[in-house]
Every structure is written in structure tokens, then in C-alpha cells.
Amino acid sequence: MLANHPNLPHPNPNATVRCVSDFFSLDSGVTQIIVDENVSDLGLTELNLTRFSQLKRLEIGDHCFNYVNVVRIVGLSALESVVIGKNCFTKYKNGWDNHGETDRRFELKDCPKLKELKVGVFSFNDYMGCEIENVDALEVIAMGNGNEWSDSFRFASLELKSILVSQ
């Protein structure tokens, strides 16, 4: 098959994102995405990861994607870990006067191998929705830091659906 020819370049299964344009140029077959700190763009309002069918690990550094209103991590059958740094997906840093925005939501669905979801302090601070569904292998959900004020998903209602409980 021509795609496996040794003289043709092969996609890197690991990808580091240093700016928003790096994210859009990623091959859909990457298995690991690591986003550096301070990656954000006023024009990026939706982060949809559904095209990364082989993704196993997503790691987002601090202060990223501040203007993103919708995060969709849906149908990733290989995904095992999502780690999001502090002050991510938050427009209004320490926004005590803000009461959340109804159009901002986080969706994590249909990822059967996902074992961990970790969210840093002040991330998703002004999101109104957090829906986690059909992630039956999930062992860890950690939001914030037990030793300091967090405000992650401060205004959101949390829906956790279809989690199997072992007896």
C-alpha cells in the first residue's frame, strides 16, 4: 500500500500545540496532544476534538482557550486521559461579578476507555454546563485543588450519566 511506503512521511502520533493554528493543522490520527501554556485566540469559540479518533491523551497547559464557549470531547474510543491546567476556558478571570454564560458548556461523552479527568483551578469558571456521559471506565474526576479555592465550573450544573458501579 502506498501510504506505508518508507519514503513517504508518516504523521507524528504525538503532537505539541504552541498556537491555535497548530491545533487546526494536526493530523486526525494523533494519539497524544499536548497544548503549551497561553494558547488562545479570540476567534476560536468551539474546541471540537471528535476528529481525533486515535487520541489517547489530551493535556492542556495553563491559561488556554479563554474564548472557547463549547468544548466537545465526544466519541473518542481510545481516549484514556484528559488533563486541563489552571485558568483554562475562562473569559472572566476571578470574575466574581459574572454569573456564567448560558452558551458556554463542556461535553465529555462516549469515551469508553477514559480513566481520568483532571481540571485545574479557575478553569471553566464561567461555564453554565458540564455534561459527562458514557465514560464507564472513569476512575478519577479531579476539579481544582483541595488546598486552595477553585471555582472550576462555578455556575455549572454537573450531569454525570451512565457510570457503571462495580459491586
What can you tell me about this protein's structure?
Helix 1 links the parallel strand 1 (14-17) and strand 2 (32-35). This protein has a six-stranded parallel β-sheet with strand order 1-2-4-6-8-10. Strands 3-5-7-9-11 form a five-stranded parallel β-sheet, with no helix packed on it. It is globular and about 50 Å long. It is 3% helix and 32% strand. It has one helix spanning 20-24; strands at residues 14-17, 32-35, 46-48, 57-60, 70-74, 81-84, 101-109, 116-119, 127-133, 140-143, 157-161. The model has no long low-confidence stretch (mean pLDDT 83). By secondary structure, it is mostly beta strands. The longest helix is centred in the first third of the chain and has 5 residues, at 20-24.
Order of helices and strands: EHEEEEEEEEEE
Largest sheet: 6 strands, parallel
Oligomeric description of these chains: single chain
Structural class: mainly beta
Which overall shape is indicated by the principal axes computed on the Cα atoms? globular
Percent in helix: under 10%
Bin the strand percentage: 25-35%
Low-confidence stretches: none
Strand arrangement, largest sheet? 1-2-4-6-8-10
Distance between the termini: 48 Å
Total strands: the figure is: 11
DSSP summary: helix tally: 1
Mean pLDDT across the residues is: 83
Rounded to an integer, what's the Rg over CA atoms? 16 Å
Short description:
This protein is an all-beta fold and 167 residues long. It is built from 1 helix and 11 strands; from the N terminus they run E-H-E-E-E-E-E-E-E-E-E-E.
What labels describe this entry?
mainly beta, 1 helix, 167 residues, globular, five-stranded parallel sheet, single chain, six-stranded parallel sheet
